[in-house]
Amino acid sequence: MAIGKLIVLTGPSGVGKGTLLRSLLQRHPELYFSVSVTTRPPRPSETNGQHYYFVSRAEFDRMVLNNELLEWAEFAGNCYGTPRRPVEENIRQGRWVVLEIELEGARQIRQNFPEAFQIFILPPSLLELEYRLRSRGHDSEESIARRLERAKSEIPAAHEFDIQVVNDDIEKALERIEEALFTPVGV
Ligand SMILES: Nc1nc2c(ncn2[C@@H]2O[C@H](COP(=O)(O)OP(=O)(O)O)[C@@H](O)[C@H]2O)c(=O)[nH]1
Ligand SMILES: Nc1ncnc2c1ncn2[C@@H]1O[C@H](COP(=O)(O)OP(=O)(O)O)[C@@H](O)[C@H]1O
């Protein structure tokens, strides 16, 4: 049976990963989105089990100790991780599995799954990134500042990835991702 593949989508917070992913999943319902666990409290728009599994720090630590996470990292004061079992099962069944994760987690995946296809989403500028974080209206000033600081250290790592996509015009960014994922090798 065909073995599926792993696709990693990374980029600074606020760059538009979630927005791009939503469209990608709508256009390609055969893709399987891996729902992460996090200790971050849910935002009003988020549903447990759909956007994240929201867990306590004790539960997160238990999952780490039991080796239930494929990768995990701390980000802006909270922990985030990828549950191992659903990813491994879906890949075994031949599906393409998409992880939307930050840089440290993407590096762990690269170590353990060198065949994963890794995409880095870049903002048109830092100023635009700040604008997007603010206009999204989810985060406190402190959280925005932490995300921007983290972005400054993440962006220089873009070259480590298979492709870099600037999310300026959303439709163009999507087409670039689709082209990279769905163009047969050798074409
Ligand atoms: N390493 C890792 N990072 C994750 C995971 N899930 C989400 N993230 C990343 O954690 C960061 C913060 O996510 P979140 O609090 O939802 O904020 P947002 O991405 O700015 O909306 C983002 O860069 C996510 O891509 C995960 O399972 N593992
Ligand atoms: N190409 C784009 N142009 C303008 N705004 C965008 C674009 N892509 C996303 N956004 C907006 O930027 C904000 C952050 O996007 P989001 O998908 O939440 O980012 P991330 O998941 O990377 O943190 C949202 O308000 C979203 O509507």
UniProtKB/TrEMBL annotation:
Residue ranges of domain Guanylate kinase-like in the record: 4-182
Main localization of the protein described in the UniProt heading: cytoplasm
Reaction(s) the record says it catalyses: GMP + ATP = GDP + ADP
An annotated Gene Ontology molecular function: GMP kinase activity
Compartmental location: Cytoplasm
Amino-acid positions noted as binding ATP in the UniProt annotation, renumbered to this chain: G11, P12, S13, G14, V15, G16, K17, G18
Database matches in InterPro entries: GK/Ca_channel_bsu, Guanylate_kin-like_dom, Guanylate_kinase, Guanylate_kinase_CS, P-loop_NTPase
EC number of this enzyme: 2.7.4.8
Family assignment from sequence similarity: Belongs to the guanylate kinase family.
Function: Essential for recycling GMP and indirectly, cGMP.
Protein name: Guanylate kinase
Organism: Thermocoleostomius sinensis A174
